[in-house]
Amino acid sequence: MDEILQHLVNAMVLGATYALLGIGLTIIFGIMRVVNFAHGELYTLGAYAAYGLVALLEVDFFTSILIAATIGLLVGAIIEYVFLRKKDLNNIDEVMLIMIGIMIVMQNLELLVWGGVAKIVPSPFSQGAIDFGVVSLSPTRLFVFLTAVVLLVLFYVGIERTRFGLAIRATFQDQDAARIVGVNVSRIYTLTFALGSAMAAVAGALLAPIFVATPMMGDLASLKAFAIVILGGLGNLGGAALGGFLLAFIEEFGAGYISSAYRDAFGFIVIILVMLFRPQGLFSAKERVG
Q1: In terms of pLDDT, which residue wins out, 100 or 280?
Q2: Percent helix, strand and coil across the chain, each rounded to 5?
Q3: DSSP summary character for residue 261
Q4: Whole-angstrom Cα distance, residue 263 to residue 248?
Q5: Of the ranges 115-124, 165-174, 226-235, 266-275, which is most confident?
Q6: pLDDT of residue 289
Q7: pTM here?
Q8: pLDDT computed for residue 284 by the predictor
Q9: What CATH class is the domain 2-116+126-277?
């Protein structure tokens, strides 16, 4: 039982950051119908931003997370404004090629700037574990979990309780009707893409002290983000959050009780099963945003 509780705690920590990653991707698809293949590179951008700020510029780690989020926000806004604003988003092939091109460029820029050697982001917390009864958790992982949960709550409140969130939900439900009542749909597109990109960058910055930063880390992050979106249902924000936690639980218990060598494979096996038997996602709903 102690071992099960420990796996549950580990899965909760990882699931919270997975939820951020999945929501960032699904909000872009839900509003714009754009499959953001560069999502993993924005996650990598956040990790490298944290490394550069903390390890090289000696910026406070907590401040580096805010700066990484801001960088992700700005890069996302630039991507939407420069590469997508004047494109027909219904032309799936063209948009897909654009996003794949951006992914390749970003990945190679990261390799050019940072090199191929993995970078370790210094953690401000002690390496010792904090005991909570029969389970233990490092201070770094506890901080990551609490921060991710706070961000998820703030995101939910923002979508459900603000004018910006109302505009997002209106745009999702009917773009033409949203325009009639005065919603600037183009601006919503830019803000949505920027917000989704910022959430990916925050996830990368949060996990940077736990894992290492490499130019190729975005490949696996993208795959997991798409897996989360598939689990939750395309465009379903609540489903993306639940899908993030579910994927983390599958990986954690699969690695703990079967084999850690196949940790990443377990989640994708479940994805294949979901695609076969419930292609709309496990948590699909009629209203997918909000």
Answers
A1: 100
A2: 75, 5, 25
A3: G
A4: 10
A5: 115-124
A6: 47
A7: 0.91
A8: 65
A9: mainly alpha
